[in-house]
Amino acid sequence: MKLLIAIIQNEDAYILTEELNNNGFQVTRLNTVGGFLKKKNSTLMIGTQEEKIDEALKIIRNLCKERQELVTAPIDPTFIDTPVANYATGGVKVGGATIFILDVEDFIKY
Ligand code: 2BA
Questions:
Q1: How does pLDDT run across 80-110, given as a tens digit for each residue?
Q2: Can you name the residues that pair with 89 across neighbouring β-strands?
């Protein structure tokens, strides 16, 4: 058995969870926050058999879109009370999904 941990964007979480459920995958959704952008995202935990991993990855790949996020930050982050004029805005590409695949030692349901 494997545990798939997929960090995805909130915009894709509902439809992806529906699609995974409809294809026989059990999913737990956690509300999470990205460390860099500090923006809310979703982390899905999907426990499944090894033979079904490719099917789950295909569903995730089809439904999770890469997006561009605008970030505004001080040009010199060491300068306290930075005037507005000294901020810069740039684009950051956020991936459709970041996925970890772990081996599960035991799986118990009571
Ligand atoms: P965030 O940490 O908020 O990162 C959002 C996006 O910002 C990243 O997209 C990446 O394009 C950029 N980014 C992140 N850290 C950066 C840095 N130190 N310098 C410059 N740009 C940086 P993704 O790579 O697609 O990641 C999307 C979200 O997936 C991340 O949100 C984080 O929540 C999670 N994630 C990605 N890689 C991870 C990892 N190795 N371990 C744990 N979580 C990860």
A1: 676 777 788 889 999 899 999 999 999 999 9
A2: 72
Q: What is the DSSP secondary structure assignment for residue 50, as one 8-state letter? A: G
Question: Which own/partner pairs from 14-18 qualify as long-range (CB within 8 Å, at least 24 positions apart)?
Answer: 15/63, 16/44, 16/59, 16/60, 16/63, 16/64, 17/44
Gyration radius from the chain CA atoms = 18
Mutation test residue for ligand 1: of 7, 32, 100, the one with most atoms within 8 Å of CB = 7
**CA distance readout (Å), 103 to 4, 10, 99, 100:** 9, 26, 13, 10
Centre of ligand 1 to C-alpha 35, Å, is 7
Instruction: Report pTM.
Output: 0.90
Q: Which atom of ligand 1 approaches the CA of 37 most closely?
A: 3
